[in-house]
Amino acid sequence: MELIVDGIVYLYQTNGGISRIFDNILPLMCELDPNLKVKLFNARSLAKRVPQHINISQLFLNNWDRSTRPWRLRRKVYSKIHNFILKSLIGDTRGKIWFSTYYTVPPFNWEGHQIVCAYDFIYELFPSLLPDSATIIPMKKDAILKADAVICISYSTAKDLVKYYPLHESKIFVAKPGYNYIFKQRSKEEIRNKINAPFILYVGNRNYHKNFGVLLSAYAQWKEHQEVKLIAIGPSWSSDEKNFIKNNKLSNQVLLLQGIDDDILCDLYNQALAFIYPSLYEGFGLPVLEALACGCPIVASQIASTLEVANELPFYFKPSDQVGLINALNQAINDGKEIERIRRGLSIASQYSWDRTASKILEVFKTVSGVN
User: Phi and psi for 339 in degrees, rounded to 5?
Assistant: First the structure.
């Protein structure tokens, strides 16, 4: 069985949730099925090191155009030459599976199968608030409707899939992500990256649907914010965030950390009084799983995906309810470290693994291709 993987996500993500999925499942699927061959291709230099395995080969398409000048001439024929080279490298497509990292379809006649992963439906839910929705939505629709199977990362995502793109249930499969086992409980002696002040933690980008503004506003109103810092892991502050932090005199209380690895992040989960997950919408919620595995209390907006991942364990609030967030935060700090609650969180986390994800997706490939 041969898998053709469009590595487009590696051009734009260095450590995002989608790239993590492929980082983990591609080598594991090759381990589970030695007959599986993966060809990972892209149009130009990749933003990060791609998954490694003896059964994973890379197809690079970016060398031919360096000698083609001027650019105006090159641009006119770029797509045609790109597609011709890709088709030549792939060869006969019969029996092969096209598996895109982000909603692409074969750019030429494809006689094999097509499988797509559905991560979330943020663009469909907030089209007027996301400037590239006019481009992304038609691309997603095309890939989903042409697919022989759609793999969703949660049952809530599968439900949304049917809502926006009605498909026969036989085409829909669910394979939930796993998490890096570096995330676990650590004793005080095992924590090397110590923060010498109590803090709450936010992890991830701060796009509109992440609802970080509500967290920031609630934190400014929280009576304990002078004693408990807010640490955010993610990209640089926006101008609006900088202004809010300055105007509310939070510069010494709200800290931004960038470029940290999973080992440091694990230390932070283990030290935090609570992990805050205020999203309006998510397809899955990998940070929730990481926090559970570290025994960190969770304060989360009550959305379908978080309920699916963590059940009733987090301290929930209604999205955009700042007072509710503050109340949930106080509860988490007071009761979140109860032994039974931590035990339940660890039990939930133990149900997830990348091995299970890879095994499930491999089953989908075999079902679609008719391989026993």
Answer: -60, -45
Q: Cα-flanking dihedrals φ and ψ of residue 242, to 5°?
A: -60, -45
Report the share of the chain in percent with pLDDT over 90: 72
Residue type, 59: L
The H-assigned helical ranges of the chain are 9-12, 17-32, 71-90, 122-125, 133-146, 155-164, 212-221, 239-247, 262-271, 286-293, 304-310, 322-335, 339-349, 354-369
Three-class SS of 90-106: HCCCCCCEEEECCCCCC
Provide the 8-state DSSP code for 210: G
Return the biggest CA–CA distance within the chain: 67
Look at the block and give the residue holding tokens 């060398």.
63
Residue 46, pLDDT score: 57
Chain segment 21-80, per-residue pLDDT in tens:
999 999 999 999 999 999 988 755 555 677 889 998 887 766 544 444 554 545 555 566
C-alpha span between 197 and 292 (Å, rounded) = 22
How are beta strands 274-277 and 254-257 bridged, if at all?
A: unpaired
Q: 174 and 77, same structural domain? A: yes
**Given the structure tokens 């994800």, which residue do they identify?**
357
- Residues 169 and 218 grouped into a single domain: no
Domain that holds residue 108: 2-178+353-369
Helices 212-221 and 239-247: crossing angle in degrees, nearest 10, is 10
For the cut 70, the answer to whether the pLDDT of residue 98 exceeds it is yes
